[in-house]
Structure formats: structure tokens, C-alpha cells
Amino acid sequence: MADSILQKKSVCVVTGPTRGLGRSIAYQLSKKLPDGSLFILLSKNKALLDEIAGLIITHRDEIRVVTSVFDQGSSDQGQFDNVFQDCLVKAGAHVNEFEQAILVNNAGTLELLELSRDLDNVNAVNVFFSTNITGCVVLTAKFLQVFSATAMKARVIINISSLAAVSPMKSWLLYCMAKSSRDMMMKVIGEEEDNIRTLNYAPGPLATDMSVIASTETKDPSLRAWFEDQVKNKTLVECDQSVEKLITVLEKNSFANGAHIDYYDEA
Amino acid sequence: MADSILQKKSVCVVTGPTRGLGRSIAYQLSKKLPDGSLFILLSKNKALLDEIAGLIITHRDEIRVVTSVFDQGSSDQGQFDNVFQDCLVKAGAHVNEFEQAILVNNAGTLELLELSRDLDNVNAVNVFFSTNITGCVVLTAKFLQVFSATAMKARVIINISSLAAVSPMKSWLLYCMAKSSRDMMMKVIGEEEDNIRTLNYAPGPLATDMSVIASTETKDPSLRAWFEDQVKNKTLVECDQSVEKLITVLEKNSFANGAHIDYYDEA
Fold first, then answer.
1. Are A145 and B117 an interchain contact pair (Cβ–Cβ within 8 Å)?
2. Do the chains contact at A192 and B170, CB–CB below 8 Å?
3. How many CB pairs (< 8 A) connect A and B?
4. What value of ipTM does the predicted structure carry?
5. Hey, which CATH number is domain B5-204+238-262, 3.90.660.10, 3.30.70.1130, 3.40.50.720, 3.40.50.2300?
6. Partner of B251 at 20 to 30 A CA spacing, among A18, A34, A167, B228?
């Protein structure tokens, strides 16, 4: 059986680490990874970045954290080109001091929850895909360059997926398309790269701001009502609970590269 | 058993109908659909549009054809807003004279055949997804608006898919992502809309310009060599042969909405 992914001294990048699932992932992984590990936290919100960074350092002073204001939907090439090197410099760190590099592609948006026939605004659709797909592809490319197969003995990329990646959901076309294409991304990279593990983790329907959005903005009445009930009855999955399952999967480390593993799947 | 899709007097939209598979689809469907059917052909290339339109009319003078210069990767909202109405006006036609509306989402590009780690240019990746996903989503939305479930007894959307939609292919990340998300699109629309049939048809490895591109530009050596052999030995599938299979599927009309059917699947 493979070693746990969480036993290796790592540089661990998390996108969207300031709220909801991303925050829980950053915080809980920081409690699991060995001393000397470095977190690189990327988000648009500087104040919330400072908060989660402070929380991590308070609980684990053997862990380093650097943050960078980062907009995944930006078309600023320089932002993508420089983000990892800048963060390493800021941390006074070098790639070769780590046994492993981890990227958690968590950042994404849930919007334009219209029926497909109403998705007729070119600019709005372009903006959605730019944020949810293009930025994720380019950031991942840069991650693979900086933390290359020759520089690192081990790399791990975790895509935060969804049931929507594998199952069509009415009035969630763009979200379903983004998630299915990001699942495919983990499959392709899993075949292309050496020294890599890639995983699609679908965290279940979470008690986050996103579910509130889903319960109010989803155009399809039955899907909207389902989220309304879940929010009202507080039956959504807590982020920490879902991250526990993710941690179990990473510790077990027996998934096939590119696999789609759901919170509700057998451990 | 359901009636053949090709027995109904139709308005039939084909994107990318000037070359390769799209041309064969437009031409062969024009020979199958009933008198009075109207073809709306959309492409960037006016000269080639005129050529395929002329070919169709020469063989079937009971079929009407209108063409429109159309760039699926454009961000010009007016282009998308007006294309179908303009074409109907040009043809002197009205939606209610047709029993069925068909959209063949064939247009797409095969480019940036790099390993994922080299896909680091934000603008280039945005352009790819704009052409291959956004334009397809918005055009389809407009199709569903103009040829609505109340206006039309029957609608059909055929997405030209690929093995790459369901199977990862090294150095084809963007193509795999676009195709998997477009497959998902047919699943979602198939659930959202009334009076609709949606199909993903993977036409097999075709003897087209695209396979020449694949055989020269694919970065992965083994995939490139496979295409080189196919091109050299002329063992790729002819477009007309693949369209025959598609026609069989449409005539049989027994596929589940959103199904992914490959040229090599059992008929």
C-alpha cells in the first residue's frame, strides 16, 4: 500500500482558501502535514487571506504560510507567471527543500444558474469559463513548471469536483460543464506527468454560502426546492466533515489517477 | 419505435459546414430531409459557404439553403442575437412552417496540442474556450429561443463529440476538456427542454485536415505517431462513411437524450 500523501514535507497551494470548503481544507491539511511544510494561499480577498493565515500559524507554528492576492479569472499573464516564484521568495523557501508539492484547485464560482436557453450573453459566459476553467488550467500549468517532475519526487493535484461533474443538473449548465472539464483535466495530467497523483474529489452538498446561492438563484424549481429544504433543515454536509473524508482518501492513497471520488462513496 | 428524425420537414443549422465532417453532414442530410426543408449554414468562410450551398441546391432543388458568415469565437453579441432571425428572413421562411428544428454543433478547433504543463498562456487558452465552448453555448441558447418548445413540435441538437470527450489523451488537454463539457451540455439540455432530442456523436478518427494537424502538432510522441501511421496508411475513417453511421442513428432514433455514441459502437 502506498504511503499517506500527508506524511511528506510539502509545499501546499490552496486556491479559494478564505471561506467554506477551501478554508477547511487549508486549515485541516495544515494540522496534518509535517513540520516545515509551506502553505501558499491564493485568493482575491487580502483581509480574509490574512485571517486564515493567522489561524494556521496560531495552531501550528512549525508551518509556514504565505499568501498572495490572486484572481483566477484575470487575464493578467504576469500574475500567473510570477505567483509561485514570488511566494517562494516571500517565504524564503526553495522547491528542493520539500519532498512534495500539492495543489488544491478549489476556487470556483456558482453563478448564471439559468436554463441553458437563457445563457445567451457571450461576455457573461466567457467570464464564467475564464474564472472556472482557463485560470485553473494556466495556474496548474505554472504549478507543473515550478514544481516539475525533475525538481520534485512527488506532486499531488486535487480538483474540487462536484456531483455536477458527472450528473446533469437542470439550470446548472455552466457549472456542470466546468466541473466535467476539470475532472477530465485531472485524468489527462494524471497520464501525462511523472511523479504525480491526481484526484477529483466531490465534497457533497456543503453548508456554505454556495448552497445559499443554490437555494435562491437556481432557476429549476425542483433543484432550487431541494437546496431550500437542505438549508432550512440544516441537513447539508459540514465542510470539516467532508474534508475529513478527503483526508482519509489522501492518507489511504489508493485512488487511481484522475478518479472521481464522492463524499458519499465508500471509503 | 420512434419515427426517424429525418422524415420531418426541418430547418437544419450546421456550424462549420464548409469542410470535412461538417460538409459531409450538411450535404448528406440535405439528401435525406423532406422537400421544403431549409438549411442554415454558418461559417467564417464565405467562399466555401457559397460552394457547399451551391452543391446542395444543385442536387436537391426542393431544399432551400441560406448561409451566414459567422465566427463562433467572436464576442460580438449582435452576431449571436440576430443570426437565426436574419437567416429566416433571408430565406423568406417562418419557424412555424417547419415540423422540426435541427442544430448540428460541429464547429470546433484542434489546437494548442501541448502537454498540460505548457498551457500557460492565458489569452490563448481563453481564445480556445471562447471558440469551442462559449460560442457553442450561446448559439445553442439562441437556437432554443428562436426554435422554442412552444413554436416547434420537435427539436434535435447533435453535438459532434470525440473519443477525447470520454477518454484522456496526452497533450490534448484543451480538446478533451472542450469535448467533455460539450457532452455534458447535451445531457443538461436533454433534461431541461421539452420536445427535444440531444445526441453526442463521436465520428471516429477522420480523414480530414484535423488529422493532419494531429499527426504533425500533437506533442505526445505516441499519439502523434498513431496519427502519422493512420494518415500515411490511409486508414482513417472517411467523413461520408461516418455520416452514414450518424444517419443510421438518427433514423433509428432510439438513443437516450445526451447519449455518447461512437462511430465504432454497435448500430
1. yes
2. yes
3. 171
4. 0.98
5. 3.40.50.720
6. A167
